[in-house]
Amino acid sequence: MKLIITIVSKEDSSIVQKELLKQRFFVTKLSSTGGFLKHGNTTFMIGAKDQDVDTIINIISEYSRTRKEMVPASIARDFGYSTVSPTEVTVGGATLFIMDVEKMIKL
Ligand code: 2BA
């Protein structure tokens, strides 16, 4: 069994959640905030059978769009970038962490 933790843009979270549930996967949705942009995003925790991991990656990949976002110069400077104008970064589609689960118990 695996635990997939994935961070997606807030704008994509409803469709990603809907498509995962449609395929009968179990999903926990957490509200999260990106450390860099300080924008709200969504983190999903998905406990899944090993053989379902590729299907889940495909769903997340299909419904998470890449976006360009502007980083205000003040934030960029906080992180050591020497700039006076906003800087563009590419955000997403999604960031995934996939971990082995030793045991899952429901009581
Ligand atoms: P944020 O931390 O708000 O980052 C938004 C975007 O800003 C990132 O997009 C990346 O393009 C840029 N960025 C982030 N940290 C940076 C840095 N130290 N220097 C330069 N550019 C930086 P993504 O990589 O697609 O990440 C989207 C969101 O996924 C992140 O929002 C964060 O919430 C999460 N994330 C990404 N990688 C992570 C990691 N290794 N560990 C934990 N969370 C991560």
Keywords:
single chain, 37% strand, 28% helix, 4-stranded antiparallel sheet, Alpha-Beta Plaits, alpha+beta, 3 helices, two-stranded antiparallel ribbon, binds ligand 2BA, 107 residues
What does this structure look like?
The chain is an alpha+beta fold and 107 residues long. It has one domain: 2-Layer Sandwich (Alpha-Beta Plaits). The chain has three helices and six strands, in the order βαββαβαββ. Strand 2 and strand 3 form a beta hairpin. The two termini are 18 Å apart. Helix 1 runs antiparallel to helix 2. The model has no long low-confidence stretch (mean pLDDT 94). The strands form two sheets. A four-stranded antiparallel β-sheet has the order 2-3-1-6. Strands 4-5 form a two-stranded antiparallel sheet. The structure holds ligand 2BA.
Helix-strand layout with pairing:
Layout: E1 2-9, H1 10-22, E2 28-33, E3 40-48, H2 53-63, E4 67-71, H3 73-78, E5 87-91, E6 94-100
Antiparallel strand pairs: 1-3, 1-6, 2-3, 4-5
Helix pairs in contact: 1-2
This protein binds ligand 2BA.
Ligand 2BA binds next to strand 5.
